[in-house]
Automatic annotation (TrEMBL):
Keywords: Membrane, Transmembrane, Transmembrane helix. GO terms for cellular component: membrane. Its main location: membrane. It is found in: Membrane. It is a multi-pass membrane protein. The chain crosses the membrane at residues 20-44, 79-99, 111-132, 266-288. This is Tetraspanin. Belongs to the tetraspanin (TM4SF) family. It holds the Pfam family Tetraspanin.
Length: 298
């Protein structure tokens, strides 16, 4: 039954538009939920936290154990919070869209359209900023990585049972070099400028000094992004001391390749989401401006 003046009947076109908005909101809600889960994973993932010193280009040299809590929030955790926030906002907007579509309250439809418009503008601005700064990020990545070795690397393989002290920068480089089979940022010679590394072999503290970290040498061990055991690198001592078989490639190309792969995925995903949001915004405006009465779906 119609409310107010007019026939109260909704044309087929308007019903179809409303159906599309409902579908779009389902997509928004799912995207928001996925971002929320990913953000929570990024925030809580201890493996990712170990790379924050390199991402932040944090060159602090204070000796800390791997279990010591960080005093400030890392860039990775901030990213996790950002993803959770974006996901939460999209889910709230989707719920408003559902409410506006089913109950057809004009004020809710106006708020929904306004929020979608604001989100689109923010996303477009962020994408423009993101891609215009990519060249700068790539340009600064190598010197920043080298700086973490020069000022932050203190040596000693990160390990669980051994009491040897290390720091977050060293842990990050150990994991990257061991898993990606590379050495240093540009190459192994970056370690010639490590000002805070005493080159002591953690497996033989009274023996010959290391030329390069043990993780720069190949060992017969499975890939692991968890805490490394110093005993794993017993066979790498000759390599690290005498520079025999040290990885010749640097880690910068591997990290850059990983970043580029994620960048492409982000770009494609962002474009698809913005197109869907733009269509939802247009259809929401059409519903707001329609001249028929607002009724609930029966």
């Amino acid at each position: 039954m119609a409310l107010g003046k007019g026939s109260g009947d909704m044309s087929f076109g308007m019903k179809f538009i409303r159906l599309l908005i409902i579908i779009f909101n389902i997509i928004f809600f799912l995207i928001g939920l996925i971002l929320l889960i990913i953000g929570l994973y990024v925030y809580l993932n201890t493996k990712l936290q170990k790379f924050s010193p390199l991402i932040n280009a944090n060159t602090g040299t204070s000796n800390v154990t791997q279990d010591q809590p960080k005093q400030s929030m890392s860039t990775i955790r901030k990213l996790g919070i950002a993803l959770m926030s974006i996901g939460g906002i999209l889910m709230v907007v989707a719920l408003l869209g559902f409410l506006g579509s089913f109950k057809v309250f004009k004020i809710i439809q106006i708020i929904y359209a306004a929020l979608i418009g604001i989100i689109i503008l923010v996303e477009v601005g962020f994408i423009i900023y993101f891609f215009t700064t990519q060249s700068k990020v790539k340009k600064n990545l190598l010197p920043n990585l080298q700086s973490t070795i020069t000022n932050g690397f203190i040596g000693s393989v990160s390990n669980g049972s051994n009491s040897s002290k290390t720091n977050d920068v060293t842990i990050a480089w150990d994991l990257i070099q061991f898993n990606l089979k590379c050495c240093g940022a540009s190459n192994k010679t970056d370690y010639n400028f490590a000002k805070n590394w005493n080159h002591i072999n953690p497996l033989n503290t009274t023996g010959p000094l290391l030329m390069y970290p043990l993780t720069c040498c190949p060992v017969d061990a499975k890939t692991s992004w968890k805490t490394l055991d110093v005993k794993t690198f017993s066979s790498a001592q000759t390599c690290a001391v005498q520079d025999k078989g040290v990885y010749s490639k640097g880690c910068y190309p591997e990290l850059l390749s990983t970043i580029s792969a994620y960048t492409k995925g982000v770009a494609i995903g962002s474009i698809v989401v913005i197109i869907i949001q733009l269509l939802a915004f247009i259809f929401a405006i059409v519903l707001v401006r329609r001249k028929t009465d607002y009724t609930s779906i029966k």
